[in-house]
């Protein structure tokens, strides 16, 4: 089965989508990658979902990607003596400290030493996704006196965001490290790291992953935006996690940042995922709002590789319908006559290497000849990533001997990946490209194919050849 759209869909699994039948229905509706959120569930829960995904993969005969999303450090206030919490009045003073005694209307525990190490007078603390705001008046190594700027009710264990400072927190918590080992042993394809603040955070994750999966840096902290280009360079992909990002920066900046981050990813040839609240109303409603449909469309027009559903498919009433709705929105956008023009307008100059130049030439040739498919042969995936960066009007057929690489490309724009383990010699390139295009339903007699590969085969980064083939003629 071949998808006709180019942008991919990531669906999060959860309580309403945890059985093999629903996972199969989600795939049929358009899900290309399944996300396992390690903020919830046990290892046994996630192992069962991995097994179910792989069972669906066998049934449909297509590579399916699995994204494990690490929880990261969760910063929360403590508890209150009154379980209903306390009401904070405007301009009142309120103390945060390292004391785990239940709080009252004057203070509450905040048992995160790293926050107090980084706080300075004038810094803001946002509580409960920004519904409360406290500005620091004075602080010490284990306390902070604050002024209530945005008032309201504070209840037990509400989350804390500290947008104005870089927190001295480890990239991975002990829980994350346990989860990471488990997820890698289960064979997950992508690992997403939460609350990235610098490229060092991503480098630490990649050292632990050690090539067993590809990495995604989740951008949800202002500090990460300072180091955007360096983070994009180190990570294998980027997720624009608009939930926390929209808390830590002014809301009106989020659309601008989304476009900036997608552009940075396209320039580097790294996949970009737009996430959070895309079809939020479909958690309870069978239809999204018009604004949500426009939000998904905007991400696709921006050139995002994938858009993601979170609670809509994990805990919502209409998980399959949410995926089908997103699928229709993407298909409608990509059917717009201006869509590919926008992709071409955002095209970056190729890099100064032979593989970059050859891939850029393949895009131009495919466009001039109106070729149906660009066929890439790749071992590491680098050739296909270059082809996707070009955003060609043709489909991209990735032939790879690696099942892992094929699954990873389920997340990448425009790529239809196929595991091909047959021995390949130079004389067989054309035949194999034609056979694959016909078998996958991507081409027919008379269609043009543009083929890129590296000779000798199997050498990483050796793309050095282009061939043009017409199906039905001798190759």
List keywords for this structure.
22% strand; TIM Barrel; Pyruvate Kinase, Chain: A, domain 1; alpha/beta; 475 residues; six-stranded mixed β-sheet; 3 domains; eight-stranded parallel β-barrel; M1 Pyruvate Kinase, Domain 3
The pLDDT mean sits at: 93
Seen as an oligomer or otherwise, the chain set is single chain
Describe the sheet with the most strands: 8 strands, parallel, barrel
CATH fourth-tier homologous superfamily of the largest domain: Phosphoenolpyruvate-binding domains
Q: Roughly what percent helix?
A: 25-40%
- Compute the number of strand runs: 21
> What's the number of helices?
17
Total number of domains: 3
Measured by DSSP, the beta-strand proportion falls in: 15-25%
Give unreliable regions as ranges.
Answer: none
Sheet/helix structural class:
alpha/beta
Widest sheet, order of strands? 1-2-3-12-13-14-15-16
Describe the structure.
A hairpin with an 8-residue loop joins strand 20 (448-454) and strand 21. The protein has 17 helices and 21 strands. The relative contact order is 0.11. It is an alpha/beta fold. The protein folds into 3 domains: 8-73 and 171-336, Alpha-Beta Barrel (TIM Barrel); 86-161, M1 Pyruvate Kinase, Domain 3 (Beta Barrel); 349-470, Pyruvate Kinase, Chain: A, domain 1, CATH 3.40.1380.20. The protein has helices at residues 20-29, 43-60, 113-118, 174-186, 199-209, 222-226, 228-234, 242-248, 254-268, 290-302, 311-314, 319-334, 339-345, 354-369, 382-389, 403-408, 429-439, and strands at 8-13, 33-37, 65-69, 86-88, 93-97, 107-109, 124-127, 132-139, 143-150, 152-154, 160-161, 190-193, 214-219, 237-241, 272-275, 306-309, 373-377, 395-400, 415-419, 448-454, 463-470. The protein has an 8-stranded parallel β-barrel with strand order 1-2-3-12-13-14-15-16, surrounded by 7 helices. Helix 1 (20-29) packs across helix 2, helix 1 (20-29) packs parallel to helix 12 (319-334) and helix 7 crosses helix 9. The model has no long low-confidence stretch (mean pLDDT 93).
